[in-house]
Design a protein that fits this description.
Order of helices and strands: HEHEHEHEHHHHEHEHEHEH
CATH superfamily of the largest domain: Nitrogenase molybdenum iron protein domain
Distance between the termini: 28 Å
Oligomer: single chain
Mean pLDDT: 85
Number of helices: 12
Largest sheet: 4 strands, parallel
Bound molecules: zinc ion
CATH topology of the largest domain: Rossmann fold
Strand content: 5-15%
Helix content: 40-55%
CATH architecture of the largest domain: 3-Layer(aba) Sandwich
Strand order of the largest sheet: 2-1-3-4
Radius of gyration: 22 Å
Length: 333
């Protein structure tokens, strides 16, 4: 089970910066508060929380948008930089997205998969408090999937811009690690908006119960295929596979977005056959060609997973995990 360390991220702004950033809202709130006082005289049930503009939170990928929205409710407005259907591994933000980032009051990113956002923050929003999940959550990385011929370096070496400090970054696909991320985000929301700290922590309590229930549900869903050979498209799935007892044989595309060499494909076909895998998996955000070639050559089924989500696919985190679990069950049972 993951734990959260107590370190604050180094890019969080100084107290003076924070005061400067909060000033416009404070003035706005004072004016609104005056109006509210008049209203309260006649409508005494008006919630005080409504007196404040929603905290503007920008996230890199869709799963964090859902988590932040569930923690903040109407107290936050969340925007997601990665468009639905795009892969974080081959994404280039537009100039207007870069411009909007400086107006964010909190940035939540994963680390590792979203290096483009780290560069954008450094260039255009260096003072905006930023949570980098990979820097704040203690991760116990499972043994990475092995490449054909049992040579890990063949599939993972030089995975530049993808790994984070050598640790596989796809932590959000394990709901217990997502819970650890949610705890970090809650602390940050409560720090930026202490008046509503109780509301954020209450929401975290509900989210914790939901994520633990989801974890148990996914484990039950995948129980019939426990130990089955699992051949995903890219190395997004080691935490998921470890958590739910799938035997991660190898990833079909070791450099996401770049077609593997004919030799790698040939070795992947041999590994799929040797493992007795019933299916291989493509992913919605990446060109499926190499998965199609392997499926056809090995004579196994092809199914499509979604590690990110977003319309028209699963738009909330729980649906995302249920979709993938159901897809894996149907293909491997
Ligand atoms: Zn990835």
């Amino acid at each position: 089970m993951a734990t959260v360390n107590g370190m604050r991220h180094a890019t969080a702004g100084s107290p003076r910066d924070a005061a400067r950033r909060r000033a416009p809202r404070a003035r706005w709130s004072a004016a609104r508060g005056l109006a509210l006082a008049v209203l309260v005289a006649t409508v005494s049930v008006l919630p005080l929380a409504a007196a404040r503009a929603p905290l503007r939170v920008t996230v890199s990928i869709s799963p964090y948008a859902d988590i932040v929205a569930r923690l903040g409710g109407e107290l936050v407005s969340v925007s997601t930089l990665l468009p639905p259907g795009a892969s974080p591994h081959s994404f280039d933000p537009t100039p207007s997205q870069a411009a909007g980032l400086a107006r964010a009051e909190l940035i939540v990113m994963n680390g590792g998969v979203d290096g483009w956002l780290a560069r954008l923050v450094a260039a255009t929003a260096p003072d905006v408090p930023t949570v980098v999940v990979m820097e704040r959550v203690d991760v116990d990385p499972p043994g990475a999937g092995h490449g054909p011929g049992g040579e890990p370096e063949e599939s993972y070496a030089g995975h530049a811009g993808h790994q984070h400090a050598g640790i596989n970054p796809h932590v959000w696909l394990d709901p217990t690690l997502m819970l650890a991320a949610a705890e970090v985000v809650t602390e940050e929301l409560a720090r930026l908006d202490p008046a509503n700290g109780g509301a954020y922590h209450a929401a975290l309590g509900r989210l914790r119960a939901d994520l633990l229930a989801l974890d148990a549900e996914i484990a039950a869903t995948l129980a019939p295929v426990r130990g089955a050979p699992f051949v995903p498209f890219h190395d997004a799935w080691p935490y998921f596979a470890e958590r739910y007892g799938l035997d991660l044989v190898l990833s079909l595309e070791p450099f996401p977005g770049r077609e593997p060499s004919p030799r790698y494909v040939a070795e992947a076909v041999a590994a799929v056959r040797a493992a007795g895998a019933k299916a291989v998996f493509a992913e919605r955000q990446l060109d499926p060609r190499s998965a199609e070639v392997v499926a056809e050559s090995a004579g196994v089924a092809l199914a499509t997973l979604d590690p990110i989500g977003g319309a028209p696919g699963p738009t909330d985190y729980e649906s995302l995990l249920r979709f993938n679990a159901a897809t894996i069950l149907a293909a491997l049972r």
